[in-house]
Write a structure and sequence with these properties.
single chain, 275 residues, alpha/beta, Rossmann fold, 2 domains, 6-stranded parallel beta sheet, 5-stranded parallel beta sheet, 9 helices, 19% strand, globular, binds magnesium ion
């Protein structure tokens, strides 16, 4: 059972637990400490290429033990959103297994003609043919959804264009902007909270970006911890009109006991579903 004196934790993955495939010092120990304390946690990623099982295996290879049930991707959030909006619909997908599996699992059918939605996700194999088909379907009336707005992402070979850049190409061609589900959309945080049966006021968001993790955590009603092991440098923090609740050099410097108890009202405060 969860320790009711400790908050639940949402953790961004890249820049907090890992850099690409390499564990950040202290990440494995932090996850272990959460488990020992009975803290409910969920690892979040805007990356929609992989399934949670794939990501769990990749984290395990980096020495970090996170079960697939404790991983929440923008692909899962997108599937949850579509299931809520238009259950058992149809989609034309430009993306990888992480996205197609999530959509199949909520009862969506993948089609190449007259879909309810064109759903764009992350892939390393964008084809001109696939993008052209997506553009034609949107022009014919399909709704346009994208898993995440990130314009670029890191790789071992340097920066790569990501979903947001390809979405911009499709938008330029069609005049239609997508609805982005992943961070900083709070839908991503709310669906993760729902998946772990937690409430925002009892949950801390730990991330490495002010413009996604911290702002989305804040807007979803959570306390936020910024770690400086990823995208945002300490000197940049003051430039933002909002502040994290806590700043740490890295996850190694975050003590789960410092995340504290839920604010006044206790652990059951969110039970009414007020968030
Ligand atoms: Mg990150």
């Amino acid at each position: 059972m969860a320790d009711t004196t400790t908050c639940n934790v949402l953790l961004d993955m890249d820049g907090v637990l890992v850099h690409e495939e390499h564990a950040i010092d202290g990440a494995a120990a932090f996850i272990e400490a959460l488990r020992e304390r009975g803290v409910r946690f969920m690892v979040l990623t805007n990356n929609s290429i992989y399934t949670p099982r794939d990501l769990s295996a990749r984290l395990a290879r980096s020495g970090i033990d996170v079960h697939e049930e404790c991983i929440w991707t923008s692909a899962l959030a997108t599937a949850r959103f579509l299931d809520d909006q238009r259950p058992r619909g149809t989609a034309h997908v430009v993306g990888e297994a992480g996205l197609t599996t999530a959509l199949h699992d909520i009862g969506y059918v993948m089609v190449d003609t007259d879909p309810d939605y064109v759903v764009l996700g992350e892939t390393r194999n964008y084809s001109f043919t696939a993008i052209t088909r997506a553009i034609q379907l949107i022009n014919d009336g399909a709704r346009f959804i994208a898993t995440n707005p990130d314009p670029s992402g890191p790789s071992r070979d340097g920066m790569l264009p990501a979903t947001g850049s390809v979405a911009a190409l499709i938008t330029k061609a069609t005049g239609v902007a997508p609805y982005f589900v992943g961070k900083p959309n709070t839908l991503m945080m709310r669906s993760a909270l729902n998946a772990m049966d937690a409430h925002s006021e009892d949950t801390v968001m730990i991330g490495d970006r002010m413009d996604t993790d911290v702002v989305a955590g804040l807007e979803a009603g959570m306390r936020t911890v910024l770690v400086l092991s990823g995208s945002t440098a300490r000197a940049e923090v003051d430039r933002f009109p909002y502040r994290p609740w806590m700043i740490a050099d890295s996850i190694a410097d975050v003590d789960p006991s410092d995340l504290g108890a839920p604010p006044a009202g206790g652990a059951g405060r969110g039970a009414s579903g007020a968030d």
